[in-house]
Design a protein that fits this description.
By secondary structure, the chain is an alpha/beta fold. The protein is built from eleven helices and eight strands. An eight-stranded mixed sheet has the order 3-2-1-4-7-6-8-5, with helices on both faces. The model has no long low-confidence stretch (mean pLDDT 94).
């Protein structure tokens, strides 16, 4: 009998965090597929002891998309749920997932991911596609910051937000995060050289620079994104924020926010930042 759901994971040296993650999805039923990318601890034994099918993947060359695609290639379920060992599905969200996988809609569903430190400090919240139909042409792209969004859209599917919540525990060691940021920057640059048309790589490159506090570099990338996506209001908003907040160039930022508002009338974030930029330029904004 075909299961409704396959839970697919890639892991490495996660024996400590893995039980907490797997316990959070156990009530969903279906099958559990865990691809080990080179653990030297008891990760595989822990996963097998909790009922997972264990497969291996050679990760000597960093390529998260390839590892993800290897994991979902074993899925037999009609739906695929992707989760990482350092994430936990909110207990209140299980029923929502069960309701979605009872249907057959061609939709990739965004989850709200609440990023936290091990000490419980709340960081930024983002949205990630983690539930999607099991179709052979729906595959991840990107050696780092891998995504499946574009694949779903190009395959005729839709993307939709949900209220489903993941709790994500960030690594606590700042030096480890910085090392990872630098490594990801080099890989993203390699990907951009290989395919400059993949604009998503620039988005992630700006984010990596930002996390390292390299704001001039992040601003330069944000400017490039606005140039190659001239009709993207959010791209102009982000460029303006860098110009205003990190480069103290309110006149240039004012132009960015005006462009964003022209593209998306009433854009609240752009309107708010425009008022701030005009205040710093000594310009009185007209009443809206």
């Amino acid at each position: 009998m075909t299961p409704a759901l396959s839970v697919c994971m890639i892991v490495r040296d996660e024996e400590t965090q893995l039980p907490r993650c797997l316990n959070s999805v156990r009530a969903l039923g279906g099958e559990l597929i865990v691809v080990d990318t080179g653990s030297v601890d008891r990760t595989a034994d822990v996963a097998a002891g909790m009922g997972a099918r264990i497969e291996r993947f050679d990760f000597s060359r960093t390529d998260f998309a390839a590892a993800r695609n290897h994991s979902i290639s074993y899925a037999r379920g009609r739906w695929i749920l992707v989760i990482d060992a350092d994430e936990v599905l909110d207990a209140a969200s299980a029923s929502a997932i069960q309701a979605l996988v009872a249907g057959y809609d061609n939709v990739g569903y965004y989850f709200e991911r609440r990023n936290e430190t091990a000490a419980g400090e709340s960081l930024v919240t983002d949205y990630v596609v983690r539930l999607f139909p099991n179709r052979p042409h729906y595959r991840y792209r990107g050696r780092v910051h891998e995504t499946i969004d574009a694949s779903i859209l190009s395959g005729g599917g839709r993307l939709q937000k949900t209220g489903i919540v993941l709790h994500h525990r960030f690594a606590a060691d700042p030096e480890s995060r910085r090392t990872r940021n630098h490594r990801y920057i080099e890989i993203l640059k390699e990907e951009i050289t290989a395919d400059p048309s993949d604009h998503s790589r620039f988005d992630f490159l700006a984010a990596e620079y930002h996390q390292l506090g390299m704001f001039n570099e992040a601003a330069s990338v944000a400017e490039h994104i606005a140039r190659v996506r001239p009709l993207d209001a959010q791209a102009h908003l982000f460029a303006g924020i860098y110009h205003l907040v990190y480069q103290t160039d309110p006149a240039r930022a004012r132009g960015d926010f005006q462009t964003a508002l022209k593209l998306r009338p009433g854009y609240p974030e752009a309107a708010s930042f425009l008022r701030l930029a005009e205040e710093r330029c000594g310009i009185s904004s007209p009443e809206e």
